[in-house]
Amino acid sequence: MNKRTLATLLAAVCLSPGLAQAQWKPTKPVTIIVPWAAGGATDQVTRLAASELESGLGQRIVIVNQPGGAGSIGTKAAMDAPKDGYTWTAGAAKQLGTYPVLGMINSKVDDFNLYLAVTNVSIVSVNPNSPYQTFPQLLEAMKNKQVSVATAGNSSSGHFAMEAIAKAAGVKYRHVTYDGGNPAVVSTVSGETEVTTQLAPEQAEMIKAKRLRPLAVVGSQPLTIEGFGTIPPITQFVKDFPQVTTGFGIFIPKGVPPEVVATVDKLWAEKIATSEKLKKYAAEKGALFTPLYGKAAYDAVWPTVITDAYLLQDAGLAKASPESLGIKR
Fold this sequence. Notes:
This protein is of the alpha/beta class. The protein has helices at 3-14, 41-57, 72-80, 95-98, 135-144, 157-169, 181-190, 200-208, 258-272, 276-285, 294-314; strands at 30-34, 61-65, 87-92, 112-120, 123-126, 147-151, 173-177, 195-196, 213-217, 223-225, 229-231, 246-253, 288-293. It is globular.
């Protein structure tokens, strides 16, 4: 997402009509179901955002990790919870639109009120003892054998990144899945797998500690991680690469009382959009700080749903065609 696009979206945020509605004063703690293991990108940014929201709500926010099914199990639990405003979920917003493509759950992006905090990119990294010193060397190996690649599972950001690489570069790989980005990264650090394509926030500390060797950022711009340096973009090696960035945040199922949405809209504009903690997190972890909600968030997410849905179809993983679900190229 370039700076001009972000400025336009942030302007739309400030004009949201939801800010003028009644305030919600929760009378008990709010639960956020994080549908991934602790320590991953979703868990990290959700806990930070929740800590910023608590003072405005006047209530604690309890984080419950419920991994499984590439995030679909925890997401469905939030969808099935009473629509009283006390149960939210979190994660990569585009997955809300791709779960039905995989035949997992019947969710749609517009089933939720979206609150984005950061946009993440994936990094292609290998174990430091790996023979692959550069991204072209890794691609060459993938043309001759099935290199093991660790991700957080089908439809995770790491999986989409690797599928995009496989399609664009004409290579194959052996997919090894885990219940979250953190365990996927640890598997490559330990040598259980050869490569991970998980998100920058999940890899940053291991990269800085030289326990992972980053080869390329899965994006069109180089990525600088404080304490490490700059990682080259994948477009330096693979031309015409699709956009596979991922907006992360908190999602409240639609159908809750309107004052819940109005209150969280207001807090997102006043507390999240000005959060120094989230800005620092983004700088340290190689993320973009993109505090969006409402239509601005939807407009940022929908193009990535389209890209990922057709990546799944082209990879032969789709249980339902994107077109049949209203997702058109």
